[in-house]
Amino acid sequence: MTKAPTVYDVADRAQVSIATVSRVLRSPDTVREQTRERVIEAVRFLGYVPSASARGLAARRTNVIGLFFPGHDDLEAPLAPAAREPGEVPIVTDDGSLDAETENLYFDEVLRGAEIEAWRHGFALMVAAGRGASREALVNDIAGRVDGLAVLARTVSDELLAHVARRIPVVVLAGAERDDGFDHVSASNGPGMAALASHVFSTHRPARVVYVSGPGDSPDSAERFEGFTAAVDAAGIAGVEVLHGDFTRERGRAIARELELDPAALTAVICSNDQTALGVLDVLEARGARIPEQVVVTGFDGIAAGRHSRPRLTTVHQPMVELGRAAVHAITARLDDPQLEPQSLTLPVQVLLRESCP
Amino acid sequence: MTKAPTVYDVADRAQVSIATVSRVLRSPDTVREQTRERVIEAVRFLGYVPSASARGLAARRTNVIGLFFPGHDDLEAPLAPAAREPGEVPIVTDDGSLDAETENLYFDEVLRGAEIEAWRHGFALMVAAGRGASREALVNDIAGRVDGLAVLARTVSDELLAHVARRIPVVVLAGAERDDGFDHVSASNGPGMAALASHVFSTHRPARVVYVSGPGDSPDSAERFEGFTAAVDAAGIAGVEVLHGDFTRERGRAIARELELDPAALTAVICSNDQTALGVLDVLEARGARIPEQVVVTGFDGIAAGRHSRPRLTTVHQPMVELGRAAVHAITARLDDPQLEPQSLTLPVQVLLRESCP
DNA sequence: GTGAAAGCGCTAACAC
DNA sequence: GTGTTAGCGCTTTCAC
Q1: Cα separations in angstroms, B177 against A87, A304, B167, B185, B322
Q2: Which chain A residues have a beta carbon less than 8 Å from that of B54?
Q3: 3-state class of A301 per DSSP?
Q4: Among the four residues A80, B61, B132, B203, which has the most C-beta atoms within 10 Å?
Q5: What phi and psi values does residue B170 have, to the nearest 5 degrees?
Q6: Rounded CA gap, A312 and A194, in Å?
Q7: Which of B82, B112, B117 sits opposite A79 (nearest CB)?
Q8: Which nucleotide is nearest to B58 (CA to C1')?
């Protein structure tokens, strides 16, 4: 780690020019075998690792793709010191009250998809989960490091996005198609919610319909709501109640607590995402409501927790891994052909019927 | 995106030298306000984003930390085309037979921790999940892009690790401490398993003890087994059966299928990880075994699925997010002071008692 | 098949 | 406070 060796060092030791060293690394078969071996030996001997900075500068491309997601603001606590000795192992009984799992599944899966696709195209992946005030600065910083950037919709100002897009391709994830000149990749939110709601209406014929929305600034939430109203109109249903949610489980719980249940009439609680629906289920179960006889509940997203809940949650499944892949794919496509018209890819979803609303 | 502007372009437009442009970006308060504003205006007008390659080359540091994990080999399928129209939404009933969730939780959580800690120290995070033959090349490539690298134990040859370590700090994740000169970060596998096993022995006094190991090349598995044998010795237990597992749920199932259960005697199945234990539970439940009256089952890791199983799984919880954080922390510490002695941090674990073995 | 040399876009002395 | 200048370590013509 004392002064990393460079091409020059390798060239010296192998008795060749730096150009040849470069060739051995980039296009080995243009170099005579004997020469090549000398170079490789030198590389090994010196512990040479080419600098991506220098390479990126000279080649004018980094071979890195960036993925920007808004961050886990919750976890800004300093690194907890190992309070206990590692040898001490406390034994605690988990009666179910222990903290819920970190439910960043969405991020995790999109990331996985992005990583896979990046790798397939020979790119490395840089992730950034900006938090707080530094967000815009971070995006700008990342933009300087990569050949293309995927950004979650609504997490960065259009202005900055436009700024960055002058330098590299930008694809917006999970935002509805907008005529902003960017590439877009999203799931079929509207039709998905419409299909689910229609199913609820036609199969269960609820006497009462409650819709729990997401945050006002979420494009996903808006699209889902549109799908919902379309289904409502199509079914000719009147008197729907719309409650304002925020995509959190806690909010779902709060809403369920205040929900007055009519034992005689079937109520449908249609939530704009799974978290909210799970919160609703938490409280409804505790209140002793009969699901799905008395109340049916639905979510949206298809997160793992919905498969394990009791009752299991009926939902619309988004292909999150595919979202990540498609985003990276869109970037590489544009890198290959910058002249491409702005693309807008909408991935299909699937309604998953489970016990909360069969 | 036509020819990205450089410092020179900005300098021209702002009527200053490139040094001043650099200053405005790196240390704004050393520049007169009026000058600064001219520069900022030019930056904005031109859509200037500094090149991290050039910056990294000049400053001799990238401000990026790398995280290497073995990859999701399963997912190499080409990007599935959107077979259906987005408007078509199939409705399927999920009777529980749909494919199991992608259980890369370990990766996900470590990554999250790493990202957080990297951000706190002002670093970006680059992730790589190498697959197949390209693994070593990938690690080498990443090594050239970052200021420090965290690598999952046993995924890269010692030789390559040593090669890379000549250039940048390397920390090994989840491997037992070894005298290899690298920094290590791991969880307290041995003591954790020992504490759990002791609990099983003293509380349940099983007539028969079955231990299911992990793959032979897993250091985690080896440490856990050591902890187990320590507990066995301490409890003076004889005639333990040790089965060879591989950390997969399927293997757990297979083992449970062949397990002969004596209705009269309590059997303890102690598994070296949660996946295996969940597989055991799957089959035992199906076979109608009474848990925990007739059989007690334990796992190790504390993955989410164990919280949702029936019965819920008793296990040892590893602080995975903390592992990621600690790894990055170790790297930044070494970057700050390269003279540091090789560190070996072992994070504390916790036994979580749930219904499979209260 | 190999070498010489001109950058790539920035930072960091060092002058002024 | 601001400008000049010398690299940083590589890729890539263009000669030979």
Answers
A1: 15, 35, 22, 8, 17
A2: 53, 57
A3: strand
A4: B61
A5: -125, 135
A6: 21
A7: B117
A8: D8
Instruction: Specify the pTM.
Output: 0.88
Residue A263 has pLDDT above 90, yes or no: no
DSSP code for B264: T
Please give the distance of CA A208 from its chain centroid, rounded to a whole number: 34
**Over the stretch A210-226, which tens digit does the pLDDT of each residue have?**
999 999 888 889 999 99
Q: In what order do the strands lie in the sheet with A295-298?
A: A241-243, A208-212, A267-271, A295-298
- Dihedral in degrees, nearest 10, Cα atoms B319, B324, B325, B328: 150
Residue B303: pLDDT band with limits 50, 70, 90: confident
The token duo for B301 is 């890791």
**Bigger pLDDT: A109 vs B290:** B290
Q: Is the pLDDT assigned to residue B81 strictly greater than 90?
A: no
Distances (CA, A) of B81 to A65, A344, A346: 21, 14, 11
* Sheet of strand B183-187: strand arrangement: A344-347, A183-187, A170-173, A148-152, A64-70, A124-130, B124-130, B64-70, B148-152, B170-173, B183-187, B344-347
> Three-state DSSP class for B32?
coil
Rounded to the nearest integer, the mean pLDDT of chain A is 90
Q: What is the pLDDT averaged over residues A14-25? A: 96
Cβ proximity of B302 and B109 under 8 Å: no
Using the Cβ of A268 and the Cβ atoms of chain B, whether some distance falls under 8 Å is answered with no
The dihedrals phi and psi of B129, each to the nearest 5 degrees, come to -120, 85
Would you state the pLDDT for residue A25? 95
Kindly list the distances between the CA atom of residue A101 and the CA atoms of A249, A276, B102, B109, in Å, as whole numbers in the listed order: 12, 15, 16, 11
Partner residue facing B142 (CB), from A51, A89, A124? A124
Q: What long-range pairs does A140-143 form, CB within 8 A, spacing at least 24? A: A140/A164, A140/B49, A141/B52, A141/B124, A142/A66, A142/A68, A142/B124, A143/A66, A143/A167, A143/A168, A143/B49
Runs of H (alpha helix) within A189-319: 189-199, 219-235, 249-257, 274-286, 305-308
Give per-residue pLDDT as tens, A79-134: 454 455 656 888 888 876 655 555 556 788 899 899 999 999 999 999 998 777 78
pLDDT in the model for residue A75: 45
Token pair for residue B296?
């007690």
B287 vs chain A: nearest CA distance in angstroms?
Answer: 21
| Vertex A166 angle, CA A164 and A171, to 5° | 60
Angstroms from A207 CA to nearest CA on chain B: 23
Residue B227 backbone class (left: φ over 0; alpha: ψ -120 to 50; beta: rest): alpha
**Three-state DSSP class for B4?**
coil
Q: Which residues of B touch A325 (CB under 8 A)?
A: 79
Distance (Å, rounded) from C-alpha A238 to C-alpha A225? Answer: 16
